[in-house]
Amino acid sequence: QGLQDQVRAGDLDDVVTFLPGRALNAMPAAIAAADVQLVSLLDRPLFHGTIPSKVQATMCLGEPLLVSAPGDAATMVVEAGAGFSVPAESPVALAQAMLRLRDLGPDAHREMGLRGREFYAAKLSEQAGVQRLEATLAAAIG
Fold it and tell me: CA 104, CA 39: separation in Å to the nearest integer?
């Protein structure tokens, strides 16, 4: 409610839209409808090793990300080249990254999304997990 009040107070209703919650099966279409997905976490020790499912889902769908979070989630997106990362709890850095993403345009967004999709397929997909498990078991057997 606080964010909605700020949008109204700033006369930003024409550029900011709040959508109601959606069922899980409706999320792929919602993700695809946006230019970029924002993942925002507080800078707390718990979140340094947390990778929200939204990161993986967005990469799987081939959409770009803007991550304002500490640790693994930010590292993964940068490593994949799937978007931008800014320090958690830094509204100035977040705003600057949003402007940079806006200025890059749809072709660059598409490229980031494709890199995220490739990263997902190579490292996060079920198939990649099975291959890693098989390799680990084979190494353990000797």
Answer: 19
Locus of tokens 């890693």:
132
User: How far apart (Å, rounded) are the C-alpha atoms in residues 53 and 93?
Assistant: 23
> H helices within 10-90, ranges in order?
27-33, 45-48, 53-60, 72-80
User: Band of the pLDDT at 15, cuts 50, 70, 90?
Assistant: confident
Q: What are the tens digits of pLDDT across the range 22-62?
A: 998 998 898 888 899 999 999 999 999 999 999 999 999 99
Which stretch of DSSP H or E encloses residue 124? none
Q: Which residues of 53-66 are buried (b: 16+ CB within 10 A; e: fewer)?
A: ebbbbbbbbbbbbb
